[in-house]
Design a protein that fits this description.
The complex is a heterodimer of chains A (284) and B (925). Chain A has 284 residues and is α/β, with parallel strands linked by helices. Chain A is built from nine helices and ten strands. Classes of the chains: A alpha/beta (284), B alpha+beta (925).
Chain lengths: 284, 925
């Protein structure tokens, strides 16, 4: 029992308990989260989906310590994040959380390596350690050869990959991604999805939370949460996702891209044949 | 500008009204003595013609001035002319007397209070028939007391038909009172157009115009048989003076007053009174002089404000760019809603017009306050606001609003044109990106500005006015041709140059600039130096502007300080050249001896409440005859002990060897210095004795013979008539020798900024019962200069405040632009203070760069002061004074002020990067 309990505690990640967040916009109160309760385990990539304004980003901001809930608890490592002071939140963000936003993730005047290394620089990590870490992370996101490139010399997908590396620079336990593929083309999106899976392969103790509108991201999800009106509407584990959507067990970007290309070519061929046949029929 | 306009208008009002109130007479009309008739008739002619036309006329009065060189006085007995007739006449036996006849109304007016003082009976002039008032010193000198019955004798020498002496006496004249003329200059307004040189030891007699008319009628009847007379012996003029009520004069509209006076003058000249008049309306000269003065001040004050306007333009255009850029999305949306480029231009130009008008209106309040302040520098009058008429206020306000609108429109042109023609996609996609990485390009006009401004500074530094005029050469001709052009450019050069250098540094010298900033940043913030460096270089446009405005402000500070110090130094040098570092006064007093002048100085000293040394250094006294010759001249007393070789008036006589000559004079009893032409003419030699005779002024009948030993010779200045300037420079002369002119030094314990004021002089004159004039050398020029330097001082601080506001706005924009970056850093756990420090470092780098570039202000100040020297060509050379400590203190203060602004702006990061704000930023993004 002891060993099981320890195992469970170890894997247990973030516990959200009856979380409320109410914004005041002038005289109007907007309830963003309405008693939301759920858990995000370590080693899991959880995807949170839902319509606009349902409270997805709010939840992410609260977990990341960027905002403070109106009530309820966010428990991580036996500590209530929502009860922390500003200074404690700062330390929490510095040590536990990595953030990837939809856009503007990079500081334009710093190159890829500097963007990744900036948080380390500001937290007094030695130069050698910093360089090792930057190399390691750029490897993880597949951009080892682009370290000297400035943000405006990188594609949108590459920028987001650098952003993931930067978010992981200080080795956080939690990686929070807010619409990480929101502004990307399909191929770039699949690469990001691949990178996110790779992150967990490389660092299996981390918790990866992805907030998105894009249903494709369910393909890499260990758990899928749907939020509606500030509450969890339903949640699916990997098996349930495969069962419900018919996805493959393992997502592979290259395979997916190749199959999509094939599918696209096939479709085009199909249309072509159909056109030809119709034309032939008409001629007949 | 509103402040300058209003304050200058008020100053003009103040000067004009004050001068008008001190005007002893508004219009004087002079006719020569050929006029027949009496005063009643004479004045009534004008009364009939003018009074109905001009209700402003308070009084039309008659005045007559009669000057006679050869007058003697006797108490209660007739003059025995035998003595005078037996000898060849000698004018030194006589007094010069000036008879003034005037309507008592005029001299009893309030406005005459500081012009003439009636000692006894106190306060008023009210002569009865056959009564005269005499100036107090002359009365003392001639032993005349109140109520005395005196005889005044006039001695005439006629050249034609035969040289003949003639005498005429007026007996039984009652002395009704005494007076002192406190301001000769203004008193003479009542009796203008003198032909006779007025000696300071003249006796002045004041009586009613009717009594003087009676005396003169008798006189003319007595001597009318003589066909020729010496016009220098006596002359007389009829005067009619007009005194006006100034209550309803609009001093803010001098043109109106000018028109009024012109009309009055014309009406007099072309009236039916057919005599030969000369009409003089002093007001016209006064208005012209005042207008010139106010215009000069206004021009200088406005030209000093040009850098402020330039700075305002830089700030406005920067802000317009930032504001329009922040509205890119709005532009895109408007374009999707069918807004054309032209429509957008109209919209934004309308906005900048409204901002300009609002700014101009807001400037009215500030302008009023600053006008009060600026006015305070020039005037002690506390009722400033009552001096501003509605007309002046409205015209100044309108000027301010128009200026604000034009400035706003000009500043918005570039941004409006750039942003209005953005395509819809461009404006929607590149939202808030371009401003963060805005590049900067060097254009051909930047090179032109760099070359022209640098050349104007270098040219002015190299300018040697003496060389320019010393002889023809290609270089000098080139200098002469370029002088006017560079003189115009020079005042703006340091500011334009600061701007261009900032631009060049941040555009061309990228490598150098980046390294420089890295080094500076490392000094402020070791950890994130590269971040700060890149942040500065990515938006070179903004960085250039903020560096440039700091540089402009600090260079202005340098220029203001150095110019003020150089000007003050130059004034001191000039004063020193005249006074040897003392305060010098040039005194002319009526009938005072040298000993009495000591009393005069003592009285002044008493008023200053200072225990000081004072020395009489130069007194021009009476005349001498050189025995054994026909040569005569004047005796100049000097005090070789307290002599300073820098006293201009002595140097004029003694030249370069003055110290050596005065040493010789000091060591030899009865020594004298003799002009070289006299030595040559008379065959004299150094060491030889000469004998002179002179008249003791306390006893007119006594000649004194004095032996003097020649101890040195001096050269007269070229151009002076050696016979007219036969001055013997002596010492040890009788202290009761009458003094005509006296240059007198005061050794203040602390000689800086102590001036004897006009009121004090008047007070001293009242106490000493004398009519005299005194002036401190360069007094009035100093006052005006002082005011302008003060103005420069205010302008300097005004400028610094404006720049501080500019820095705050630009830093605020910079922080706003980077708020996403800050949010990102905060989301990654970077501490607030670390971010504040990066922003602070950025500001401090701007400050350091600005301070470095501003050093061009020192060169510019050097150039400017050299050019001023070149244009004004002062007798005493201008030497550049750099008040290092003052500059350092003010520079420190300015940097501290800017630093505080930067710190406050940086602290804004704290607010911008707090937890809730970060989530809001990303939500908005």
């Amino acid at each position: 029992m002891g060993e099981n309990h320890m195992q469970k505690e170890k894997l247990r990640g973030i516990v959200i308990d009856d979380l409320f967040k109410i914004y005041k916009r002038g005289k109007i109160e907007v309830v963003a989260l309405r008693g939301l309760t759920c858990e995000f385990d370590r080693g899991n990539l959880s995807v949170i989906m839902g319509p606009s304004g349902c409270g997805k980003t709010t939840l992410l901001n609260l977990i990341g310590g960027l905002d403070i809930p109106s009530s309820g608890r966010i428990i991580f490592e036996n500590e209530n994040v929502s009860g922390k002071s500003e200074k404690e939140l700062e330390i929490y963000r510095k040590t536990k959380v990595g953030y990837v936003f939809q856009f503007m993730n990079l500081i334009p005047e710093l190159n890829a390596a500097e963007n990744v290394g900036l948080p380390l620089l500001l937290t007094n990590v030695s130069k050698r350690e910093r360089e090792n870490r930057i190399n390691e992370l750029l490897n993880v996101v597949g951009l080892f050869n682009r370290e000297k490139h400035m943000p405006d010399e990188l594609s949108g997908g590459e920028q987001q990959r650098v952003a993931i590396a930067a978010a992981l620079a200080h080795n956080p336990d939690i990686l929070l991604c807010d619409e990480p593929t929101g502004e990307l083309d399909t191929e770039s999106k699949y690469h990001i999805m691949d990178v996110l899976r790779n992150v967990l392969k490389k660092y299996p103790q981390k918790i990866v939370l992805v907030v998105t509108h894009d249903s494709d991201l369910r393909k890499i999800a260990d758990k899928l949460y749907f939020i509606k009106d500030g509450e969890i509407s339903f949640e699916l584990n990997r098996e349930e996702i495969i069962e419900k959507y018919g996805d493959s067990v393992e997502f592979n970007a290259e395979e997916t891209i190749a199959s999509e290309r094939f599918f696209k070519d096939y479709k085009e061929l199909e249309y072509l044949i159909r056109d030809k046949l119709e034309k032939f029929a008409k001629e007949k | 500008m509103i402040g300058i306009n209003l304050s200058m208008d008020a100053m003009g009002y103040d000067i004009l009204s004050e001068n008008f109130e001190n005007q002893t007479v508004d219009v004087s009309i002079r006719s020569d003595r050929a006029f027949s008739g009496n005063f009643t008739y004479f004045t009534s002619l004008f009364n009939q013609t003018l009074t109905d036309l001009y209700p402003e006329i308070q009084n039309i009065f008659g005045a007559i001035k009669f000057e006679s060189y050869f007058t003697v006085y006797k108490k209660s007995e007739p003059i025995n002319w035998t003595f005078y007739e037996q000898l060849d006449y000698d004018w030194r036996w006589f007094n010069q007397t000036i008879f003034f006849g005037i309507d008592p109304y005029v001299v009893n007016q309030d406005r005459m209070q500081n012009v003439i003082q009636f000692v006894s009976p106190l306060g008023t002039f009210s002569p009865s028939q056959n009564e005269i008032y005499i100036d107090l010193q002359s009365a003392i000198r001639n032993n005349i007391t109140l109520g005395d019955n005196i005889t005044i004798g006039n001695y005439f020498h006629f050249y034609y038909p035969d040289e003949e002496n003639h005498t005429y006496s007026i007996e039984n004249i009652t002395v009704g009172g005494f007076f002192n003329i406190l301001d000769d200059f203004k008193f003479n307004y009542l009796f203008p157009q003198n032909y006779v040189y007025e000696r300071e030891n003249s006796v002045r007699i004041l009586t009613s115009e009717n009594y003087i008319y009676q005396i003169l009628t008798n006189l003319w009847n007595n001597i009318s048989n003589f066909q020729r007379y010496d016009p220098w012996q006596y002359n007389q003029f009829w005067h009619v003076g007009i005194v006006l009520d100034h209550t309803n004069f609009d001093y803010l509209n001098p043109r109106k007053i000018q028109v009024f006076y012109n009309k009055l003058t014309t009406d007099i000249v072309y009236s039916d009174i057919s005599y030969n008049f000369e009409v003089n309306a002093y007001a016209l000269n006064l208005i012209e002089e005042m207008e010139y003065q106010v215009l000069a001040f206004k021009t200088i004050a406005s030209s000093i404000s040009i850098p402020v306007l330039l700075l305002a333009w830089v700030l406005l255009s920067t802000n317009y760019h930032v504001v329009f850029n922040n509205r890119r999305r709005e532009i895109g949306l408007l374009k999707t809603r069918f807004f054309t480029n032209a429509k957008l231009r109209r919209l934004y130009f309308s906005e900048s017009t409204v901002f300009g008008i609002l700014g101009g209106l807001a400037g009215i309040g500030f302008g009023l306050l600053s006008a009060r302040y600026i006015y305070g520098i020039f005037s002690e009058n506390t009722t400033f606001f009552s001096l501003i008429s509605l007309r002046s206020f409205l015209s100044s306000a309108l000027t301010g609003v128009i200026l604000g609108t034009v400035l706003s429109l000009i500043a918005s042109i570039k941004s409006t044109l750039t942003f209005s023609k953005l395509s819809t996609i461009e404006s929607l996609q590149k939202y808030n990106v371009e401003i963060q990485t805005r590049p900067l390009q060097i254009r051909w006009w930047d090179w032109l500005l760099l070359i022209v401004t640098s050349l104007s500074i270098i040219f002015s530094i190299l300018l040697d006015p003496d060389a320019v005029f010393s002889g023809p050469s290609l270089w000098q001709i080139l200098l002469l041709i370029l002088l006017p052009f560079f003189s115009v450019i020079l005042p703006l050069s340091p500011f334009i140059l600061s701007w261009v250098i900032a631009k060049f540094i941040s555009t061309i010298s990228l490598g150098f600039f980046t390294k420089l900033i890295s080094k500076i940043t490392r000094f402020f913030n070791r950890k994130t130096d590269f971040f700060v460096t890149r942040s500065i270089t990515r938006n070179r446009w903004r960085s250039t502007r903020i560096v440039a405005i700091i540089a402009i402000a600090l260079s202005f500070l340098f220029i203001a300080d150095i110019t003020a110090a150089t000007e003050t130094q130059h004034q001191q040098d000039t004063m020193f050249a005249y006074t040897g570092g003392h305060s010098a006064f040039d005194i002319s007093a009526t009938n005072l001896t040298r000993a009495e002048l000591w009393g005069y100085s003592a009285t002044l000293m008493e008023q200053e409440n200072l225990t000081v040394q004072h020395s009489s250094i130069l007194s021009i006294t009476g005349y001498f005859d050189l025995e054994g010759s026909y040569m005569s001249g004047r005796i100049v007393y000097v005090d070789p002990t307290n002599y300073s070789s820098h006293v201009g008036d002595i140097d004029r006589f003694l030249g370069e060897n003055s110290a050596q000559l005065l040493n010789a004079l000091r060591d030899t009893p009865n020594g004298t210095l003799v002009p070289s032409n006299l030595i040559e003419f008379m065959g004299l030699s150094i060491g030889q004795s000469i004998f002179i005779t002179y008249l003791n002024s306390t006893n007119l009948t006594r000649y004194i013979t004095q032996e003097l030993q020649i101890v040195g010779e001096y050269q007269l200045m070229p151009g002076l008539n050696p016979y007219a300037y036969n001055h013997l420079i002596c010492k040890d002369f009788l202290s009761d020798l009458e003094v005509e002119r006296h240059i007198w030094l005061i050794n203040y314990e602390n000689s800086e900024n102590i001036h004897i004021k006009n009121e004090q002089v008047i007070q001293a004159m009242k106490e000493l019962h004398t009519s005299s004039t005194i002036r401190s050398i360069y007094d009035s020029e100093e006052d005006e200069l002082f005011s302008l330097l003060n103005f420069l001082e205010i302008e300097k601080y005004y400028f610094l405040i404006l720049v501080a506001i500019g820095i705050a706005i630009t830093m605020y924009n910079s922080i706003q632009e980077k708020s996403v970056d800050f949010g990102l850093l905060r989301a990654r756990g970077v501490e607030k203070w670390t971010i504040v420090k990066t922003q602070l470092s950025e500001g401090l780098v701007f400050l350091t760069l600005g301070a470095i570039i501003s050093l061009n202000g020192i060169l510019s100040a050097w150039a400017l002061n050299n050019a001023i020297g070149g244009i004004l060509e002062p007798a005493v050379p201008r030497t550049l004074a750099i008040p290092i400590w003052r500059i350092l203190v003010e520079l420190g203060g300015s940097i501290l002020l800017f630093g505080i602004i930067i710190i406050i702006s940086s602290l804004f990061v704290l607010k911008q990067s707090n937890v809730k704000k970060i989530s809001e930023i990303f939500r908005t993004a």
